[in-house]
């Protein structure tokens, strides 16, 4: 790890030396064209100079430095390039060192020891816009994905922190989550909306920053609120139905038709007969989301983590790596970069211990999806003297409360009661209650059944195709779609590397 960090530091220094100060490119026309390409034409050269923003011509990338706040030494870089697809603009990012070791608070060297108010953003370009408007601001290294605890000490000096992370619902949910880490009493949130876009867009539109910041909502709130306080948020959900519906599965498009998407703050109960492939399916189901940036925590109490990781790595690679060991490091390197964590428990566990571990993971790693496989391992010694139905309701209730309190999705695997082999599973197959159930049936049949759904969607059944080679249940059509997405990403990364830097899509 130290060797990797040292190499990343050397690579960062090499790129930094090759990059040119954006505010003093030899050709003024090139400077203006570059600024226009990144949508920062109104950001002054003086602002770019203060933050030390450079431009790497070979990769057509902006270069944002990570300076040590103590001695102004270069610790790393973030490179951002633009890709246009029709009328859509995508910002592609790469960091040195890699993202989980990149703990920069962009703009920190410009913050004075007497500053007591701060605006926290999720993007370096937004920090530039705020600074130019005379507002002390910092940009988080991973945007709305994560607020690493290692950065919290740098934010202790501020008595008031306003979180202005973006203009979509994911940014709004992240702002509420981060405010809990930073202390609700000192935090305010800028609600996304047409009149309150992200800071860079506000600068480009000539909006009044002071007015927007004064309208920020306190993060702490009373127990009872009126519709007036909910009005804008209700409108936001109506105007952003796709985002409200949640993150779509790439491998299981049929599931999107029934459940609309994967959402925070909900509980999914998943069951199926012994040997039907519950763990294997849930592995792929969770991997699909994890590959889209959903921070995931696995609690596998029935099979050990090595075996689980092997299953998920095989699904990720789409092949039997034991037959192609020369490819292991290549796929393992990619798999290692996923926001995926595992609990070390195995066998019977106390529910309180598991909940405490989940709480720690949500705080430390901003986990938004937890898989518990399976509930029976929470039904141990603590509940011997209690009716089993009551005990299960208690455990399910504890996980449901956790999902609500922590705005985190819980997928809970439960073994059903014994059923006739030819009989389809029903909601009654699981004693107790839950908000939502995803059921499989067998033997001899492979399909997924949604039998209860509390969100806008439907119930129904769709077939699954199991591949022993890749250990996947996704259909051939979805695999082709996934392969196409992978090929596009690999081609994009290859083009970026030829220019001197790798790329990944901004979350």
TrEMBL record:
KW Transcription regulation (keyword) present: no
GO biological process: mitochondrial DNA replication
GO molecular-function term, one example from the UniProt record: 5'-3' DNA helicase activity
Keyword Secreted annotated: no
Membrane association type: Peripheral membrane protein
Catalysed reactions listed for this entry: ATP + H2O = ADP + phosphate + H(+)
Domain SF4 helicase: 241-434
InterPro entries xref list: DNA_helicase_DnaB-like_C, P-loop_NTPase, TOPRIM_DnaG/twinkle, Twinkle-like
Protein EC: 5.6.2.3
UniProt KW keywords: ATP-binding, DNA replication, Helicase, Hydrolase, Isomerase, Lipid-binding, Membrane, Mitochondrion, Mitochondrion inner membrane, Mitochondrion nucleoid, Nucleotide-binding, Transit peptide
Cellular localisation: Mitochondrion inner membrane; Mitochondrion matrix, Mitochondrion nucleoid
GO CC, alphabetical: mitochondrial inner membrane; mitochondrial nucleoid
Gene3D superfamilies linked to this entry: 3.40.1360.10, P-loop containing nucleotide triphosphate hydrolases
Enzyme superclass (EC): isomerase
CDD domains from the UniProt entry: TOPRIM_primases (cd01029), Twinkle_C (cd01122)
Pfam families, alphabetized: AAA_25 (PF13481)
Role of this protein: Mitochondrial helicase involved in mtDNA replication and repair. Might have a role in mtDNA repair. Has DNA strand separation activity needed to form a processive replication fork for leading strand synthesis which is catalyzed by the formation of a replisome complex with POLG and mtSDB. Preferentially unwinds DNA substrates with pre-existing 5'-and 3'- single-stranded tails but is also active on a 5'- flap substrate. Can dissociate the invading strand of immobile or mobile D-loop DNA structures irrespective of the single strand polarity of the third strand.
Entry protein name: Twinkle mtDNA helicase
Native source organism of the sequence: Lepidothrix coronata
